[in-house]
Amino acid sequence: MDSKRIVYMDHAATTYVKPEVLEAMLPYFTEQFGNPSSVYTLGRKSRSAIEEAREKVAKAIGALPEEIYFTGGGSEADNWAIKGAAFANRAKGNHIITSKIEHHAILNTCEFLEKQGFEVTYVSVDENGVIDLEELKNSITDKTILISIMFANNEIGTIQPIEEIGRIAKERGIIFHTDAVQAIGNVEINVKDMNIDMLSLAAHKFYGPKGVGALYVRKGIRIENLIHGGGQERKRRGGTENLPGIVGLGKAIELATADIEGHNARIRALRDRLLNGILEKIPYTKLNGHPEKRLPGNINVSFKFIEGEGLLLLLDQSGIYGSTGSACSSGSLDPSHVLLAIGLPHEIAHGSLRLSLGDKNTEEDVDYVLDVLPKIVQRLRDMSPLYEN
Amino acid sequence: MDSKRIVYMDHAATTYVKPEVLEAMLPYFTEQFGNPSSVYTLGRKSRSAIEEAREKVAKAIGALPEEIYFTGGGSEADNWAIKGAAFANRAKGNHIITSKIEHHAILNTCEFLEKQGFEVTYVSVDENGVIDLEELKNSITDKTILISIMFANNEIGTIQPIEEIGRIAKERGIIFHTDAVQAIGNVEINVKDMNIDMLSLAAHKFYGPKGVGALYVRKGIRIENLIHGGGQERKRRGGTENLPGIVGLGKAIELATADIEGHNARIRALRDRLLNGILEKIPYTKLNGHPEKRLPGNINVSFKFIEGEGLLLLLDQSGIYGSTGSACSSGSLDPSHVLLAIGLPHEIAHGSLRLSLGDKNTEEDVDYVLDVLPKIVQRLRDMSPLYEN
Amino acid sequence: MYSDKVMDHFMNPRNVGEIENADGIGEVGNPKCGDIMRIYLDVEDNIIKDVKFKTFGCGAAIASSSMATELIKGKTLEEAWRLTNKAVAEALGGLPAIKMHCSVLAEGAIHKAINDYRIKHGLEPWKDDKNYDDDHHDIGE
Amino acid sequence: MYSDKVMDHFMNPRNVGEIENADGIGEVGNPKCGDIMRIYLDVEDNIIKDVKFKTFGCGAAIASSSMATELIKGKTLEEAWRLTNKAVAEALGGLPAIKMHCSVLAEGAIHKAINDYRIKHGLEPWKDDKNYDDDHHDIGE
Ligand SMILES: Cc1ncc(COP(=O)(O)O)c(C=O)c1O
Ligand SMILES: Cc1ncc(COP(=O)(O)O)c(C=O)c1O
Ligand code: FES
Ligand code: FES
Predict the structure, then answer these.
(1) Residue numbers of A annotated as active site
(2) How far is residue B313's CA from residue B299's CA, in Å, rounded to a whole number?
(3) Which residues of chain B have pLDDT under 70?
(4) CATH number of the domain encompassing residue C70
(5) What pLDDT shows up at residue C134?
(6) Which of A22, A116, A316, C25 has a CA-to-CA distance to C65 between 20 and 30 Å?
(7) C111 inside domain
(8) Model pLDDT, residue D134
């Protein structure tokens, strides 16, 4: 309410576009705007730009360029992977396995498929948000055509044992998709080593533009199209290519994966300083998600006795931007399905705060949050009928 | 091959982004990038920007803001409209009516639905590309749930009698969708007066950015989601909003519909000068599409005895960018389905050239094309075994 | 999404706290769905002399508590009973559709506090036709 | 999409034209699918003295005609017969996958022209195992 300091700690929701990325994109709006499907010079230059971006995406995840298809975002990639595999393999089976803590782009797609006659198993997670591998194995049937497990969770940051899931899927000859929207740039990924058949990503989570993403589909995997249309993306995704967006995605993924270790070390140090400070300064506080196997920038804590929306609004007044799993913030009856899946009671889930750190955050930012946050929590607790001093 | 002059006449494929549009978009990449679903200031500003864009789109077509849903482009809007209406109304019927000259985003979607048990009637067009209204009426059955007819054709520019089709659909209580991707900015559209229930559009056809579009869905029309996911777009289209893209779409549609008459008068005068010059200077040439009811900037002509890809390449060498319906340019066996539908023999369809004019084209551009094109056509004819001087 | 009035009452809530030995206390909501509002009344000669609240809930819930307590302070119990959630929302310059139920909490807590007072004073509780402890979260539009 | 060599032969095609009273003429393709190639041969002592072409087809078809005619000029008929479409494409610095069939036209037209010459000269036509007039458009990858 006083400060002009702005501390953005909601990078898991979306990031700003890095200047280098925007710069790479700019020529493609006004000058170099030709339709990549055209035979003339202007079109051919656009085609090269797209193929260059495709190579960058492929390289970042250990795939071949011809295995990368550009989409209009992470949700489209998720929808395509799930529906595409389902519709293409219906003759083989109608059973899909996923987890209880997937993003709604996966969960709501599965719900749609259930209405279309598919059967979906939602595997549980433990109190740290790690998938139950035994339950996963036991839920496989002759009819299982697809396993989709996210690489890292967007709310609590827990990283899944993707290699092991890939092995299980491979052994049983089942297609394995992973939603890696949160993982890119934070975890080393190699789709071949990890036996990943399909992988979704979205540029705006790693300092690229919104409205563009990609789906990796291993050569030989057949999926039905989601966006039917022109011959773009080797006839698998119709629509005039989002040329500046794709160029931006290419540049952003190149930057994000150039030095994952270095990036993580820096972010993790900041994150731990902030997390330890919070746990130290604010009583009745609990960390959600796995203590070690988590995204380097992710903090998710629950403050007892208070509700998250008010917390966000007060933080906002101090220039701090975070997010919450409270139902009050989403307008739905239940708080975050992820927090419930790891066993939090409703009232604790309501008091959750996610702070996700990014490249521009500094130690000063951390110290500022550590100064402001405890007061705000106390202020809300003082208003809470649940809190008895 | 000598000149440095560049004449872009492929605006029907895609347009450059106007400087004012790019300028409006720029803050939303790097500064004003907050997730519109967030409660904090940065997110709320994004939300306002999106709602402002929504109002602009609504105003441009005579709809209500809450009837506009943003998509990742024209193809997504088309796929959503058709599949969404089909899946939501399956209990009512399984019959869809469309035309033979729709964009592939419609045709290939219908083909997919045919595999899912739907029946599709593809209505014919006359030699000018105008829909056969009698055939349309006669093909309606008790099971017809959707009529989808494009507003204006992307290849030959023919504008359809949309109001009459809207009336027919309304009388029979059938949902009416129109693909207006080519029409926005070129035809006055009022979805209420025209009884349009759903309408697709794409920003990159009217000087907005690629990778963003919109679907208008009349209040009360229920369609299944295409991109399932988060609660964005009033729970009807998941995915973090393409904030700069949406802002750009809003700005572009505002500019494009501010003075349609004035814009058309200017473009039409240029177009007619070019068209008349071509027909005068180049023998064995035929105009495709309706002589009057056509998009103001559209020229589509067939030059006998030659093939279009070579034509494009030679034009390219002179800095002129156009497009063709030749199969050789697309890598498929058949030339443009639109040119075949209006009754052109294959070899004539192969020699087609589309020049689509835009806002930056000048009389000098026209004169330059009129200087270059006849020589190029002659040069190819001189190489052609079909041409006997 | 919130009006300036809402933000003002959320940021600077009036009448936060408890009243020791209050004449009437009303609590609605349940922690499961995330919202609890408790209202304390000090009543003298049928007039609300003082009122305090404690709320566990969103910004709109806190602002509604603040506004509602302001609106009934100094009023008769009959007047206070007639305060509707709509009046609270209006006084706040409006609430988003999905947040209207938060103002209902305030109406409910006041009703409960008044009836608590009436029962303690051997009066018959007034009849309420709403159940304020129901799941009241609702998705707008 | 085309190599510089292809563009050069498309922009500046060698041997365009007709030969009056040619010793052999071969034509393949059909206008329905958009490509026709016709080749004229002047043969002296079993050597191709002169060769011309006319082509209705894409840039790759025209470039292939140009390159193929260059490659057989001055060669014996046997040598010319052995020219494969692959050799033509290679000489052009490669062709896009979806354009390989355009080079097949050149191979076919040469074979037909040679056999036209042989028949006119009372010789038995050489056997060809491909049908060059088939629909040859094909989608790459
Ligand atoms: C008539 C028509 N419909 C749909 C589309 C598809 O739009 P987009 O390429 O933006 O997906 C286009 C343009 O390509 C079009 O001209
Ligand atoms: C794990 C995960 N999957 C999918 C998505 C959807 O991506 P987008 O919003 O770009 O469609 C997100 C982000 O919103 C995410 O965090
Ligand atoms: S208290 Fe939950 S939304 Fe207001
Ligand atoms: S001649 Fe048709 S593609 Fe080459």
Answers:
(1) 328
(2) 18
(3) 1-3, 331-333, 389
(4) 3.90.1010.10
(5) 54
(6) A316
(7) yes
(8) 55
- Is residue C77 in contact with ligand 3, taking CB distance under 6 Å? no
Range of the domain at D71: 4-118
**Chain A positions in Cβ-Cβ contact with residue D141 (cut-off 8 Å):** 66, 234
Mean pLDDT of chain A: 96
Tokens of residue A100, six digits? 């209880």
Q: How far is the CA of B1 from the centre of ligand 4 (A)?
A: 22
A160 vs A182: CA distance, rounded Å: 12
Q: Residue A265: is its pLDDT beyond 80? A: yes
Residue D139 lies in a domain: no
User: Which of B186, B210, B167 minimizes the C-alpha distance to B72?
Assistant: B210
In a domain, D137, yes or no: no
* Nearest ligand to residue B308 Cα: 4
The pTM of this model reads 0.95
**Measured from the CA of B102, which atom of ligand 1 is nearest?**
1
- Tell me the pLDDT tens digit for each residue of A196-207: 999 999 999 999
Ligand 3: which atom is nearest the Cα of residue C105? 1
Total domains, chain D: 1
The pLDDT > 70 percentage for chain A reads: 98
Residue D48 located in a structural domain: yes
Residue A333 has a pLDDT of: 67
Minimal Cβ distance to C1: which of B39, B66, B234: B39
Q: Tokens 């008790």: give the residue.
A: B142
| pLDDT tens sequence across D68-85 | 999 999 999 999 999 999
The one-character DSSP state at B333 is: S
Contact B307, B328 (CB under 8 A): yes
Q: Which helix (H) or strand (E) holds D42?
A: strand D35-44
> Which of A102, A103, A199 best tests ligand 2's pocket when mutated (most atoms within 8 Å of CB)?
A103
The chain B residue lying nearest D61, using CA atoms, is: B310
B258 touches chain D (CB under 8 A): no
